[in-house]
Every structure is written in C-alpha cells, then in structure tokens.
Amino acid sequence: MWLDTLNTADRVNLLELYARSVMLIELGRAADWVDLFDPYALVRCAGSSRQFKGRAELLELARGMIVGEFDLAAGTMRPPSHCRHTLTDISLFSNAANGGATGYAHLTVTAAGGGGPPHWLASGLYSDRLHKCGAGCWRFESRVLTVDGAAPCVEVATSGNQAPGLHPVRA
Q1: Cis amide linkage into residue 79, ω under 30° from 0
Q2: Which one of 17, 25, 52, 141 is CB 3.0 to 4.6 Å from 129, fit for a cystine?
Q3: What is the DSSP string of 126-141?
Q4: CATH number of the domain enclosing 96
C-alpha cells in the first residue's frame, strides 16, 4: 500500500518534531521550542480567541506553559500547575503541491504534581501544516488545536505541607 510521497527520513524527522513539541516544554527549553516553528507561525485554539503568532508571542506562550500559568488546551491556570502533554495517533500526509505536509495528533493534558495523582485536564486534536526548510529540517507553519473538552478547575485551600493544585469540579 502506497501512503504518499513522504520518505522514511521525512517521517522520522516529522515524528521527532512532534516529540520535541511536547518534550522541550517539559524540559523548560522555551527558546528551543520556538525554533520548531516558522518565524511567523500561528498557533491557535479553534473556537476561542487564544492565538499566538510569531516568535515573540510563541515565546510568551512557551514560558507560560513551562511555569504552569497557561495551557493552550486548558486556558489560564490558577494556581499554576505543572502539566504533562501527551501526543498519540500521529498521522502524517504529504502535500505534494507545495512540498510540505499536514499532520494530526491527539493531545491529552494531565496535571502532574500538587501532592495527588495526575488527573486529566483537557484533550483535543492538533491539525498542523508543516514545511521543510532549506536546510532539510521540518517546522510547523501553523498548529490549530480543537479541544474536545477541558475540566473546569478551581483553587483548593491547602494546609500544612500539601501543595496547592488544580482539581476538576465534579457536578
């Protein structure tokens, strides 16, 4: 079965791009994360006003995610919470017309830390446009996140050694 014109090296490099898009945030490397994107790339959350365009705004987004104050899927985090992002079902398709590719990945965001077990915060689907730069590396041209759902979060009063954390509101 012939999938498309992406060769094995392109697929490996694209999968590495996706892996770094979550791991560099986890490692606290905001500037390196921004380098995964075109200089004028757009990252936005579908159906909301949350969007970031260009290096300066992407750097602001990365720093907010690293310190746990903001997450593209979950929104503003009060109090700040360390989030873990997991990508699954990554699917890549060649766009032979412009030499680029489109990619899709399911996202799951969990709150990690805060003294309790990790818990689900949000999930969704990334729809990405990617292109190969002159040096042969791949970058994101745009990322659109369509959120399936997000847990409403509230501040929880804490005492003693217990760290504050985000907890879903149960109906």
Answers
A1: yes
A2: 141
A3: EEEEEEE-TTS-EEEE
A4: 3.10.450.50
pLDDT at 103: 97
Number of domains in the chain: 1
Q: Is 1 a member of any domain? A: no
Amino acid identity, residue 106?
Answer: H
- What's at 65, amino acid-wise? M
Kindly state whether residue 2 falls inside one of the protein's structural domains. Answer: no
pLDDT in tens, 49-85: 889 999 999 999 999 999 999 888 888 888 888 899 9
**87 with 67: CB under 8 angstroms?**
no
- Strand 37-45 and strand 138-150: the pairing is parallel
Does any domain span residue 3?
no
Encoded tokens for 164: 């504050």
Tokens of 27: 């490692």
Residue 1 scores a pLDDT above 60: no
- One-letter identity of residue 87: L
Q: What does the pLDDT average to over 146-155?
A: 68
What domain range is 27 assigned to? 8-166
> Which of 16-25, 47-56, 83-92 is least confident?
47-56
Query: Taking the CA atoms of the chain, what radius of gyration do you get in angstroms?
Result: 17
b/e map of 23-47 (b: 16 or more CB within 10 Å)? ebbeeeebeebbebbbeebbbbbee
